[in-house]
Amino acid sequence: MQQEKTIYSVLIGLIVLSVVFLIIERVIGRGRQQSVFRRGWCTDVIYWVITPFFTKQLVKYGIILPAGLLVLAKVTTVEGMQQRTYDGFGPLGDQPLWLQALEIYVLVDFIGYWTHRMFHRGRWWRKCPCDR
């Protein structure tokens, strides 16, 4: 049931965002008209549909793995993690929360941008048959 809910959420999000970006592209585009079904369109659709599923798993393991390593290194305990008494350490942990959030946002956006560019260049996956 939960997986169906996730699939429907992704599909609804895809449709809504596609319409929003189509309107933005038509209204304030780069001064040139391009067809909706252009070269690279298939790659864009696959990226939009697949990314949320992979991102969810990456985030889950991106949180669990470091937490597990901290417990194995005896920096903290499982109980300390569950009670949220472990606040981290080092210069990044000493920064204000708003600054940490901003840094994470910039880092994720930077990685997402370059990942998307690599997909379009065909280095990380082959071109879709419909894009040839």
- Number of separate strands: 0
List the helices and strands in order. Answer: HHHHH
Into which percent range does the helicity of residues fall?
over 70%
Mean pLDDT: 77
User: What spatial form do the alpha-carbon principal axes imply?
Assistant: elongated
The total of helices stands at 5
CA(first)-CA(last) distance: 37 Å
Strand content: under 5%
Task: Give a description of the structure.
This protein is mainly α. The chain has 2 domains: 1-34; 38-131, no CATH class. Helices cover 70% and strands 0% of the residues. It contains 5 helices and no strands. It has helices at 2-28, 41-72, 78-82, 90-94, 97-120. It is elongated and about 60 Å long. The mean pLDDT is 77.
Relevant terms:
single chain, about 130 residues, mainly alpha, 2 domains, 5 helices, about 70% helix
Summarize the SSE layout with pairings.
Layout: H1 2-28, H2 41-72, H3 78-82, H4 90-94, H5 97-120
In short:
The chain is mainly alpha-helical and 132 residues long. The protein has helices at residues 2-28, 41-72, 78-82, 90-94, 97-120. It has two domains: 1-34; 38-131, no CATH class.
